[in-house]
Amino acid sequence: MTTAVESEKGGLAGYLTAEVSRSPTQASLQRLYFGCRRFAQNPLAMIGFTILMVLLLIAIFAPWIAPYPMNEQNLQTRLLPPSGDHFFGTDELGRDIFSRVVYGSRITLQITTLVAVIAAPIGLIMGTTSGYFGGWTDTILMRITDIFLSFPPLILALGFVAALGPGIRNAVIAIALTVWPPIARLARAETLTVRSSDYIAAIRAQGAPAWRIVVKHVMPMCLSSVIIRITLNMAGIILTAAALGFLGLGAQPPMPEWGAMLSTGRQYLLGSWFLAASPGLAILVVSLAFNLFGDGLRDVLDPRDE
Amino acid sequence: MAVTDVSRKAAAQSKLPSWVWDAWRIGSSAIVTLLGLLALTFFMGRMLPIDPVIAIVGEQADASTYDMVYKQLGLDKPLYVQFGYFMRDMLSGNFGNALFTGNKVSDDLMRVFPATIELATIAITIGVSVGVPIGVLAAVYRGSPIDHLARILGLLGYSTPTFWLGLMGLVLFYAVLGWVGGPGRLDVFYIDIVDRRTGMLLVDAAIAGEWEVWQNAFSHIVLPASILSFASMAFISRLTRSFMLAQLSQEYILAARVKGLSKWKVIRKHAFRNIAVQLVTVISLAYVILLEGAVVTETVFAWPGFGRYLVSGLLAGDMNAVLACVLIVGTLFITINLICDLLYRILDPRTR
Q1: Per residue in A145-167, pLDDT tens?
Q2: Residue to substitute from B152, B167, B232, B340, interface A, most A β-carbons within 10 A
């Protein structure tokens, strides 16, 4: 009784730190709380998290943050170096680079989200199916996965872009096709550990069809590790997308995609270095943030490394 | 390893040594993957929205020319026959003609590959000679400023877009400081002085004894190679650190120290020897991954190598060139993985 009284006194904090949890909800909330605390103690991870939150806010409020419209041309103010009026200078058509970098954050977030949304389900379905059914299904599906894994990601993405044609939509598809194989491997490994457990045997004994077991009882168990994996892959996704943009095969001008901006910046490099400097720095900061965030997340959820 | 277990069982039944089974299993799975690779590139070629016949004969060609080329390309045959032709061509190194250069793709590749090999070899040398010591130091002085520095360096290596680093490097070291040569492999007035033997300029210039050319070539390669090595440096140092940490916590290290060997002697003679095999695997993988980095680095530095060829092929919509490049990188990747796998089993008695 005393603990209950104390926890009522402590309100939310008491509820979250109680020695004995009284309900499954409380238990999982407690786990989340301690995970967050552990995460917050890791300064690098917090830096990453903060940068990503700032990026999200910038993307949402882009029209209010950017001092100029992203495609407003002014040929009288072209190739101006950074100044109070134009923080990052102006490009070859007199557009404000700062405003374009701000709007570019939207494209970067869109690409990463879309890739994650496409690749995660493919990897999850391939991996769980392969792991649950085993035998020939497993051999064939994993062989397909191996084939995709036998290319460096950018080369594979280039191959698909060549087949599908350049453009941001095809770049997203091409990158997603390179991201799913490691996820499938992971989901398969998780499924193998779950497959022989008693609760699966119980469901099977009740006569549930295989697809139902896979979708309702195996997939949820793999979900958390798949999410971590995708987060850790985000930096790679951003770099690949930017590389495609830079090579002229991803987002096309006048879209303010950072990689594509670098590509134009390259033509004016020696006279006006600032054209290329800020979009590249933006790519670096965001992919660094994802790496820091992912590292922190892994430390929290997988403390074996310590 | 599951493969080893299965091989042991099979070997026990057939009286063959287990490494024969290992080699067979690994080899056959590599062949299946290679076939898959061919199938994947074949379908990439078929996905193309452009009509391959029109790409060759042009829009104005009459119907009979069109039909002739259509039949020449084997497009009237069923898909599996076409795949058979495709396999035969690819395996015999007949990649067709590159429309954007007018040469055979195989000739083009022979021409551009040495430039990339030269670049990648210097890059991996830099990556290893910086990455391995950093990794070892970070493991030995775990938690010290060196370790943190190594971690930050690693994070930067994983997060920095190489093309941006290359552009900024050009501005700083070429345009502002003038320490290195600009884009390309040589300054204009040094071009075509040395005869082409290996295609690797540093080697060719050394053979010809043209040291002025050698110096110029070196000043051109040093920046792209350093930039290219950056990501592999991070990769190598991070893995060296974790391999080394695993060794340093073993009891034999403590035993050697108790016997009175100095700290660095134990690290050099005992711990490092044990991670050498793993390191070889990592370094050869890093070498293939450099080919990926080369695609963007070569574009930045106008380096006439494999990566730039692939990108030019892509921008020209030349499927023959692109597929050949993709296929070659995939094959290299599989081969190096295969060699590493076999080497691992031969050099490390614990895997037997």
Answers
A1: 988 888 888 888 988 888 888 88
A2: B167
Task: Mark residue A73 as left, alpha or beta (left: phi above 0; alpha: psi -120 to 50; beta: remaining).
Answer: beta
Nearest CB neighbour to B329, from listed A152, A235, A280: A152
Handedness of CA A106, A107, A108, A110 (dihedral sign): positive
DSSP A8-24: HHHHHHHHHH-SS--SH
Most B-contacting residue of A139, A151, A305 (CB-CB within 10 A), to test interface: A151
A6 has a pLDDT exceeding 60: no
User: Whole-prediction pTM value?
Assistant: 0.86
Contact A121, A179 (CB under 8 A): no
User: A97-133 vs A219-246: helix axis angle to the nearest 10?
Assistant: 140
- CA of A289 vs chain B CAs: smallest distance (Å): 9
Q: Which chain B residue lies closest to A250 (C-alpha atoms)?
A: B315
pLDDT at A98: 92
Beta carbons of B159 and A150 less than 8 Å apart: no
- Using the Cβ of B335 and the Cβ atoms of chain A, whether some distance falls under 8 Å is answered with no
Contact A247 B334 (CB under 8 A): no
For residue B158, list chain A residues with Cβ-Cβ distance below 8 A: 235, 287, 291
* Domain residue spans of chain A: 42-68+87-301
Let me know: does A104 contact A199? Beta carbons within 8 Å.
Answer: no
Please give the ipTM for the structure prediction.
0.84
Residues of A in contact with B314 (CB under 8 A): 158, 161-162, 247, 249
Residues 6+ apart with CB under 8 A from B63: none
Q: Which of B109, B124, B175 is nearest to B318 (CA)?
A: B109
Report pLDDT for B90: 82
pLDDT tens string A210-251: 899 999 889 988 888 888 888 888 999 999 999 999 998 888
The domain defined by A42-68+87-301 folds into MetI-like fold (1.10.3720)
Separation of alpha carbons A196 and A206, rounded Å: 16
Query: Is the CB of residue B164 less than 8 Å away from at least one CB of chain A?
Result: yes
Give the model confidence (pLDDT) of B286-327 as tens digits.
Answer: 888 888 888 899 999 999 998 999 988 888 878 888 888 888
Low-confidence ranges of chain B (pLDDT < 50): 1-3
Compute the average pLDDT of residues A250-264. 89
Phi-psi region of A209 (alpha: psi -120 to 50; beta: other; left: phi over 0): beta
Confidence at A302, pLDDT banded by 50, 70, 90: low
Residue ranges of B 45-74 with Cβ closer than 8 A to chain A = 45, 47-49
The number of beta carbons lying within 10 Å of the beta carbon of residue A101 is 22
What is the CB neighbour count within 10 angstroms for residue B84? 13
What whole-number distance in Å separates Cα of residue A117 and Cα of residue A128? Answer: 17
